[in-house]
Each structure stands twice: as structure tokens, then as C-alpha cells.
Amino acid sequence: MSGEMDKPLISLHLVDSDSSLAKVPDEAPKVGILGSGDFARSLATRLVGSGFKVVVGSRNPKRTAGLFPSAAQVTFQEEAVSSPEVIFVAVFREHYASLCSLSEQLVGKILVDVSNPTEQEHLQHRESNAEYLASLFPTCTVVKAFNVISAWTLQAGPRDGNRQVPICSDQPEAKRAVSEMALAMGFMPVDMGSLASAREVEAMPLRLLPAWKVPTLLALGLFVCFYAYNFVRDVLQPYMQESQNKFFKLPVSVVNTTLPCVAYVLLSLVYLPGVLAAALQLQRGTKYQRFPDWLDHWLQHRKQIGLLSFFCAALHALYSFCLPLRRAHRYDLVNLAVKQVLANKSHLWVEEEVWRMEIYLSLGVLALGTLSLLAVTSLPSIANSLNWREFSFVRMPRCVATSSAGNTDSGTRRPEFQSQDPHLRALHHQTSFLGSQSFCCSLVPVSTPYGH
Length: 452
Ligand code: NAP
Known about the structure:
Membrane topology: Multi-pass membrane protein
Protein name: STEAP3 metalloreductase
Cofactor: heme b; FAD
CATH superfamily of the domain at 30-203: NAD(P)-binding Rossmann-like Domain
Transmembrane segments: 214-232, 252-280, 305-326, 359-379
Bound molecules: NADP nicotinamide-adenine-dinucleotide phosphate
Distance between the termini: 55 Å
Number of helices: 19
CATH topology of the domain at 30-203: Rossmann fold
CATH class of the domain at 30-203: Alpha Beta
Main location: membrane
Strand content: 5-15%
Strand order of the largest sheet: 3-2-1-4-5-6-7-8
């Protein structure tokens, strides 16, 4: 483990011949870390790699020193907090009180709270860990930061998906100092305001795909309904009426018949809220009125619903490819051939059937291709690389492919929201971004609570 932790990260000039992190220049800013656990080790490695001088405070420095990069100084807690102005508190909340003996040395310093509560702790405590730390050390400035970054990410280096570091504090200067450190370490600081936001910041790692919950339940619900219907139609009815045993169809055939039904309904649910929103605006005669909450939530979930539709369509394609591989299909073919021989027919060719299948397959492939294009352009990295015109251009084929869903979107630019209130403007900006990231923008391209 220590070998891994000693690997060079950013500053190659800090690496000595045996690939461990070597001495940091004396003029480098000094940062303290309290605790010597997983997070403290990764943080120390990254800070050293980013050009900082690091001093680690441990209750037992002898035991832990070997786990840290050689450039980091590992010492007792009292000594570690004496000189740095910024000190990371890499210990759990329940151990904060044990640090109170350091109160005198910590006067006027910046304490960075990196802790994450468990779900139970989050519900149990009304005040955030950072606010609790601030109450224990009233002479210090507490900054909440880095809790959304795992020890692994710190060690491996920031990657695209997890570069953002939400930061909050009651002291703008302290916040700025920690933000600069985050930038130096390769992360992207995001100002979350005062320390009162710490509870919200601490809740971030506890979330489990909140935007996907309702769309996934919806897709599952639709799947169950359509599956039940197809089961009754294709399996139960033949069994009841003609005593035919077709239960073998349950794992593949019925699933394959169900998937496109779910995909179609989900796709129509991507477009329907846009149409409803447009109708509502026309009926109200204004775009400056809030949409009802249910419609607003629906509009904001279009991307997820669209991607689930694509997922079902892709599964349908895969299942369809597998259909001829089944034993049942081979037996059917052989039986058909035998029947043909018995009926003394040498050439079976129904022109209409042939054409129908060719067109059916071709349209299916084209529809899946179009849907794939839409799914790909909904990826933030791709959507961000397109300007509005390019984005609209890529979305054009959708109008043809889904005209049955009532979409007449011409890809016109949305009107700019003009408000004197900076909060409203920021909200508009944020929600406009969400709208543009939508799987497919709707007839009225808004997903904001305001119908502008
Ligand atoms: P850990 O490996 O268990 O380390 C905790 C450290 O706390 C110990 O190594 C210990 O160091 C120190 N400590 C100080 N006073 C203590 C006391 N009275 N009793 C026990 N230990 C005490 O935990 P961790 O994973 O590094 O997490 C540390 C903090 O970082 C937590 O608040 C956690 O929520 C946060 N965090 C962790 C991660 C992660 O990926 N691990 C990610 C984000 C945030 P000494 O024995 O040297 O004093």
C-alpha cells in the first residue's frame, strides 16, 4: 500500500530517482492534516504532488509515518498544527471532541472539514459535521470541502466526472484560500455559499441517482403491465382455449414483444410534457407563469426517460438477433419444411411477406440508429462540444422519426430570460442548461419552473 501511495502524481520535479516523492521546496505553502487514515494519506500524497509542504498530525506518528510520502512530515498532533494556517481535519465526527485539547494552538486557523456522515448520522444530527466542528472551535474558521472526493480519486488524480469540489464557509477569505488549494490540486472548486449549506454538501455523497428513481420505476411499471398483457395474449390464451403449451415463450419471446412497447411509450412520454407545456402557455396567454410542479418534474426527467427508451430499444434489437438461435425456432423451421414436403410444395415464396419483412427490418434499424444518435448527443461531453445550431441539426432526424409522437419542434432558439433578479437569472441559466441537456428538447424547450 505504501508503495502505491508513494507513486508520483503531478509534479515530476518532486520525484526522486527511486520514484518516491522527494523533498518539497522550503518556500512551498505548508498545510496540516489531522489524522493518518486512508483519506489523510491520499490527501498528503496529492498535496505533496501539487507542490505543498505537508505536516501530518497523528496520535501515533511512529506507527503511521511509513505509510506517507517521504516528503510529508508525520508528527504528533500538537506539533503538526502549530505552524500551518490551513489544517485538514481528516477524522470522523465522533472523534472531533478528542481534538479539543488542541484548541489553543488552533486559534485563528482555517479548519477544513472533509467528513461525510452515514445516512443514519445525517438523519440523526440536525447540524452538519462542519457546523459541529465550528461550535467546538469558535476561534477557528471552518471550511467544508473535499468530502465528495474519495481517497481513491485523491490518490489517482482528478478525472472528468469527479473534478468538482463544493466548498462552503462563513468566511470568504478562508473559502478563497481553500478554493485556490483545490485548483492547485487539479480540482474545480464550486462555491456553495455559507457554512449553513454544509448539510446539503454532506448529503451529496449519500445520493443514489435521484434523477433516475422515478423514470426507472416508470419503465419497470410499464414493463410489468405490458409483460402481463403479452403473457395473457401469447401464452395464457392459447393454453386456455386450444390447450397449447407455449410457456417456453416467457423468457425470450414475451420479453422481446414487451420491450418495444415500453420503448415507444417512454419515447412518447419524452415529448408529451413539451406539448402539454405549450398548450398550457397558449391557454394562459403568457410564458411568465410557473408550470405546475408535476409538469416541471416531468420536463426535467425527459433525458432519463429518453435514455431508458433507448435502453429498451437496444435490448429489443439484441433479443431479436437472438431469436433465430433458439431451439424452438429451429424446430419450427424443420416442421415447416416437413409440412412443405408432405404438401408436395417445392418453392415457398410469398412476395408480400418478403417485402413487409424487409421494410420492417430496415425501418427498425433506422429508428434504432436515430435513437442512438439522440442518446449519444445527450451525453454532457458531446452536447457541450456542440453549439446550439449544431445541436438542433443533430436533432433534426428525430422530427421525422418521431413525428407520430406529435413533435413539430423546429429547433428555434429559446428566448433569453431577462430578469433584474440575479437569482432568477442564475436559475434560468441552470435550468436552460438542463433543458439543452435533455434527451430531446420539447416543443417548448423549457424545463424551468417558469414558463418563459
Ligand atoms: P480512517 O482511515 O478510519 O482514519 C481516521 C483517522 O482518524 C485515524 O487514522 C486516526 O489517525 C484519526 N483519529 C484522530 N483522533 C481519533 C480518535 N479519537 N479515535 C480514532 N481515530 C482518530 O478514516 P478515513 O477514511 O481516512 O476518513 C477520515 C475522514 O475523511 C472521515 O471524516 C471521512 O468521512 C472523510 N472522508 C473519507 C473519504 C474516503 O474515501 N476514505 C472520502 C471523503 C471523506 P491517528 O491514529 O493517526 O490519530
